[in-house]
Design a protein that fits this description.
The complex is a heterotrimer of chains A (279), B (291) and C (256).
Chain A lengths: L1 H22 L4 H25 L10 H10 L1 H34 L3 H15 L7 H8 L3 H24 L4 H9 L4 H35 L9 H10 L3 H29 L4 H4 L1
Chain B lengths: L1 H40 L6 H8 L10 H12 L10 H32 L1 H14 L8 H10 L5 H24 L4 H9 L4 H12 L1 H22 L9 H10 L3 H32 L4
Helix pairs in contact in B: 1-2, 3-12, 4-5, 4-7, 4-10, 4-11, 7-10, 10-12, 11-12
Chain C lengths: L1 E12 L2 E13 L4 E5 L6 H8 L7 E6 L4 H6 L3 E4 L11 H12 L3 H14 L15 H13 L5 E5 L7 H18 L2 E6 L2 H7 L2 E6 L4 E7 L14 H19 L3
Parallel strand pairs in C: 3-7, 3-8, 5-6, 6-7
Antiparallel strand pairs in C: 1-2, 1-4, 8-9
Helix pairs in contact in C: 3-4, 3-5, 4-5, 7-8
The chains are: A mainly alpha (279), B mainly alpha (291), C alpha/beta (256).
Chain lengths: 279, 291, 256
């Protein structure tokens, strides 16, 4: 009973503080503090509900239990992280996004190819591409290469569509200006169209960070050496050791946020001039 | 007019044809090894045409040829009773039902959250960052856990998969609707104030109609995400029904043609659903003069 | 310098054919300041774009510096100023002005020199390292003009460059443009909507009317080359403005 009261108070207290803070003029401090307080109150409610209702640990472990497991399994968590994120997701992301970007630049010269591939690209980007995972495991084997291949397939089409969109983003006036300078195709591409395409390119790069992580993890459900986050999650679920599963989820969430955050930081530097970055 | 339609369709058609040709070529390339092995064991040497014919008709090929996949789909849809456990339509219906339920739940949740975020500053500043952060939790990766946990509390069958789909589809709807509800310009909002319109009236007469284009774009993404959620939700627990289950069964038994047919079926389902939303979008927006 | 003879241009649009220019004949001499004025759709911008080889005529002929517009464009014979400043937001003002110089292959030292020179001409010294969005509309347009002056083209083509600015800034920029013209002796073709602007700036005013786009009147201005802003209240000025207005009304009246 005491625990439930704690949870209830945390909810009320957190919300009350946030209402006060939200009424203040918006600043970086309030922008960070409010979601943090909200998150913190969620964690306290979680803990108190698990203890108050005596929820079984095979259903939903308490945050305190998860943190203990996390601290005690750093070695395994790191190993899994390297296998899945570094070897699988990052390599697939680099290959997939890089080749999509290159292809977009190539087909830019051939409007016929563009008109043909773009609808197909949009179509494929909406498909459950993750379903190709078993096929790719069959082709590339159990280790990280097949996971990388799944990631490549998942990120390729969204990145292609975004880059092609970006290369089309210049307006007629800017292109006319280049014509008056008698600028050639490559000059126009390098000095005008590529810089103008950057906001779209980064939109694609950001969207595909989450796809890459999901792809690498889910691909491991279809076959993996005895390491990797997806492997760990499916086996620990089988053993009903949900605290380990939540520890892996935490790693995934942290990795995903860090990945997305780094791309967003680079975006801020490169597209500093875009209205969305100037606030 | 016909000329303009042709201008749009011709490149896509030629690309599709080119891709099918490439597919046949890849099938030859990937299946050759097995074909030659088989021939060697039988003590036969193959001519080129015999080799090619073989690569396009193996039982468990590394890459099935398009006609093999088409034949399998035909066999398991048109030629099977819908109630049969082997019918692809039966499996599609199962996947479809959790997709649609998850999509509906996700859309309702997404719109509700969006309205809350737009109208309540505290919600905006506290919840919105977490909505974005929620997508960093790879829900697909923990689908197994969610299914197991929900099964343990007695929620099984359709609902757990629908919850996964809901989690995936609510995000694009929230993001899109927040953008859409905030899209009317200041002049229009001031106009409402001069008429002393209440919050609800402004929502109904101005903000909601303005957000229609954004809503439909998000619904298309949400539908595709919901389908992926339903398919992946069918993977973990040795599920016996649904397209995802078919995919998994095929991968366990090395039935590559089965895998491909399930995948293509899922693709067609996705195209159909997203296409339907597109049609709905065009009708609604045209009716609202927002084309 | 520019010679057009029976120039015609017909556009194919979704609603049928539109004759943007019909039998336009005009001679522009070196050192002229020519204004093109007329209502929307009279073809003044189209004519400018044909000179710049941004559109191709469907009939008639036009030569720029004795050559076809395409050859002139490849020889970088003119600078074009658009209605909007169109500066690249990812480049500084200095970077924007050196853009054509980079495209045309000037070396780094020459680029720096010219950038400084033209910034001085348009009185934007000190703004080299700023970004376009940090400048006001008027300053951005001045930077756009500086960009068109950076390489030594004898011809300047300007398409309603001051249209989006308020009257006070506009007056100031008109004065500056006139002084620039006197100092550099370039030939300027200037498209505008504003009668006072056309009369104040030009040595020759070309009045055009729409549907089809054609020249209704060509007025050689008797005003002296050196003109303070006050000249706009003089009797001579008002007389020329009347003549322009009459020409515009005549073109308009053809429809009624």
């Amino acid at each position: 009973m005491g625990w439930l009261a704690v949870g209830f108070l945390a909810w009320l207290g957190g919300w009350a503080i946030n209402i006060r803070l939200a009424a203040l003029p918006k600043s970086r401090l309030t922008g960070l503090a409010i979601p943090m307080i909200f998150g913190l109150s969620l964690v306290v409610i979680w803990e108190s509900m698990v203890r108050g209702f005596d929820v079984s640990p095979i259903l939903l472990p308490a945050p305190s239990v998860i943190s203990v497991k996390f601290a005690g399994s750093l070695g395994i968590l790191w190993q899994d992280f390297v296998q899945t994120v570094v070897k699988g997701a990052l390599s697939g992301y680099a290959i997939g996004c890089g080749s999509a970007f290159a292809l977009a630049v190539v087909i830019d010269r051939f409007p016929f190819l563009q008109r043909g591939l773009l609808p197909i690209g949009n179509f494929v980007a909406a498909l459950p591409i993750i379903g190709m995972a078993p096929i790719l495991v069959m082709w590339f084997g159990f280790d990280w290469q097949s996971k990388s291949a799944v990631v490549v397939v998942m990120v390729f089409f969204p990145m292609l569509v975004n880059t092609v969109e970006g290369l089309r983003a210049t307006n007629m006036m800017q292109r006319d200006l280049m014509r008056t300078y008698a600028a050639g195709y490559w000059q126009t591409l390098l000095k005008l169209r590529l810089p103008a395409a950057m906001p779209f390119v980064f939109n694609g790069l950001k969207v595909t960070t989450t796809l890459a992580l999901i792809g690498a993890i889910v691909a491991e459900f279809f076959g993996s050496p005895i390491k990797g986050m997806g492997f760990r999650i499916s086996t620990e679920v089988g053993r009903l050791a949900l605290d380990m599963v939540w520890a892996e989820i935490t790693v995934a969430a942290l990795a995903g946020s860090a990945f997305y955050g780094s791309v967003a930081m680079i975006e801020k530097k490169v597209t500093f001039w875009h209205p969305s970055q100037r606030g | 007019m016909i000329l303009r339609l042709w201008h749009k369709v011709a490149p896509v058609l030629s690309m599709v044809v080119a891709l099918i040709v490439l597919w046949y070529g890849a099938a030859i390339w990937l299946n050759t090894h097995w074909a030659e092995d088989k021939a060697q064991r039988a003590g036969v040497t193959l001519t080129i045409t015999a080799l090619i014919a073989d690569t396009w008709s193996q039982e468990k090929p590394k890459l099935p040829a398009p006609h093999q996949v088409a034949h399998e789909i035909w066999k398991t849809t048109v030629l099977k009773k819908i109630t049969s456990k082997r019918s692809l339509i039966h499996h599609s219906k199962i996947t479809l039902s959790s997709t649609l339920l998850g999509f509906a739940l996700g859309t309702v949740l997404g719109i509700a959250l969006a309205v809350g975020i737009v109208y309540n500053r505290t919600m905006d500043m506290s919840v919105m960052p977490w909505v974005i952060a929620s997508q960093t939790i790879p829900i697909l990766a923990v689908a197994p856990m969610i299914i197991v946990v929900l099964n343990a509390v007695g929620i099984s069958g359709l609902l757990p998969k629908a919850i996964i789909s809901m989690y995936l589809s609510f995000f694009p709807v929230v993001v899109g609707m927040v953008k859409g509800l905030r899209s009317p310009d200041h002049m229009q909002l001031d106009q409402m104030r001069t008429w002393n319109a209440g919050g609800g009236q402004t929502l109904w007469y101005l903000r909601l109609p303005s957000s229609m284009p954004y809503l439909f774009t998000s619904l298309k993404i949400a539908m595709a995400a919901s389908l992926v959620g339903a398919v992946v939700g069918e993977l973990p627990t040795g599920a016996v029904a649904g397209l995802g289950a078919r995919l998994l069964a095929g991968s366990y038994y090395g039935q590559t043609i089965q895998i491909w047919s399930a995948l293509i079926m899922a693709a067609m389902l996705a195209a159909l659903l997203v296409g339907l939303i597109g049609v709905l979008q065009r009708i609604t927006l045209k009716h609202m003069g927002m084309v | 310098m520019i010679s057009a003879k029976d120039l015609s241009l017909t556009f194919q649009t979704n609603d049928g054919q539109v004759q943007a220019l019909k039998d336009v004949s005009l001679n522009i001499n070196q050192g002229d300041f020519v204004s093109f004025i007329g209502p929307s759709g009279c073809g003044k911008t189209t004519f400018l774009r044909v000179m710049a080889d941004l559109e191709a005529p469907t009939a008639g002929s036009i030569t720029v510096n004795g050559q076809s517009p395409e050859v002139a464009r490849r020889a970088r014979a003119y600078g074009y100023v658009f209605q909007a400043a169109g500066l690249y937001p990812w480049r500084t003002i200095g970077g924007n002005i050196s853009l054509p110089l980079e495209v045309m292959g000037y070396d780094k030292a020459a680029q720096a020199d010219r950038v400084r020179h033209v910034l001085d001409l348009v009185e934007l010294n000190g703004f080299e390292k700023k970004f376009p969005w940090q400048l006001s509309g008027g300053m951005q347009q001045r930077a756009s003009i500086a960009r068109a002056l950076a390489f030594d083209a004898d011809l300047l083509l300007m398409d309603e460059p001051f249209g989006a600015l308020d009257e006070i800034v506009r007056d100031h920029l008109n004065e500056q443009l006139l002084q620039l013209w006197m100092r550099t002796n370039k030939t300027i073709c200037f498209v505008t909507h504003s009668i006072p602007e056309a009369v104040y700036l030009s040595t020759k005013i070309v009045v055009m009317s729409p549907r089809p786009g054609r020249i209704t009147d060509v007025i050689d201005s008797p005003l002296p080359k050196e003109r303070p802003l006050e000249i706009r209240d003089s009797a001579q000025f008002i007389e020329i403005a009347h003549r322009v207005r009459a020409g515009l009304r005549a073109g308009h009246g053809d429809l009624a």
